[in-house]
Amino acid sequence: MGVSMQKMEASMEYQHDATLGEGPVWDEREGRLYWVDILSGTLFVYDPVTNRNKAHDLGEHLGAVGLRREGGLVVALQSGFAFYDPAERKITPIADPEADRPGNRFNDGKCDPSGRFWAGTMSYELEEGAGSLYCLNRGLEVAVRLRGVTISNGMAWDEDRFFFIDTPTRQVMAFAYDQESGTVASPEILRTVDEGEGYPDGMTIDREGALWIALYDGYKVIRIDPVSGETLFEVHLPVPQVTSCTFGGASFRELYITTAREHMSEEEIQRWPLSGSLFKASVPFGGSPAARFGG
After folding, report:
1. Which residue, among 20, 29, 126, has the nearest Cα to 69 in the 3D structure?
2. Is 167 helix (H, G, I), strand (E, B) or coil?
3. Number of domains the chain is built from
4. Residue 288 domain-assigned?
């Protein structure tokens, strides 16, 4: 950590009590933020202009959401991949790669630059290595990209690398990534998060290629160098369970940050009452529009 490293505080954007707020995605066409509360099975559509947060109850645990090029959403539900039309509130199932594993659920997910939707699974019992990372391609076939994952979390891509977090390992991994085929290879550890810093969770990437990582039980989001892994910038929050982040706003300079309150005692909730809320920081870096699913 250099002497010149900058820090700033995030402000509360929308107060809520999400159990496990996660997976923020900015829709630049609508000027709205989609985010989820995994364990209540709720999809939120937040409008920063009106400060309204519309809730869609999807009826089952909801791991992640992605935008579609033709409009509407692709989602990773406990029952597998599906399309969701928010206007009609209609779910259309696609495929369930783990129909034989009722003890698992989808966790985090994101679209890659080539228009595929990736999402990983984990076991409710946090059984080590029980999850896998799947890729739903544009033809709606599902491929396994990684096996033996415990808590599948943050994902990001640049031209030829795929970044991935399996939270309990505390590692941010970098893989060689083939845009054409969507395959990953040659894993390397980019950064191991120290024990006192919390656990690496959700992740996004900025225009300069630096990675932004939410630190669960770490009260912050860190921006790290994509080559050295060192911390370049920090955004601090008044709650411990920081889960994910994404860039939004008209110029993609607003960092939206989700948080959680799972496993918290009443005493802890009194101490950190804003846990589960949506936060925002106007950062001196810009992001890019989210990739959209091409199927």
Report:
1. 29
2. helix
3. 1
4. no
Q: List strands edge to edge, sheet with 6-9.
A: 6-9, 231-236, 220-224, 211-216, 199-205
Residue 258 forms beta bridges with which residues? 244, 278
Give pLDDT tens digits for 137-178: 999 999 999 999 999 999 999 999 999 999 999 999 999 999
**Which run of H or of E encompasses 164?**
strand 161-166
Let me know if residue 1 belongs to a domain: no
Is 294 inside a domain boundary?
A: no
- The CATH number covering residue 152 comes to 2.120.10.30
Q: Is residue 289 assigned to a domain? A: no
* pTM for the structure as a whole: 0.97
Residue range 179-236, pLDDT digits in tens:
999 999 999 999 999 999 999 999 999 999 999 999 999 999 999 999 999 999 999 9
Domain hosting residue 36, numbered range:
6-282
**pLDDT score for 4:** 57
Among 295, 112, 137, 68, which residue's Cα sits nearest to residue 205?
112
SS3 call for 169: helix
Confirm if 52 and 61 have CB atoms less than 8 A apart: no
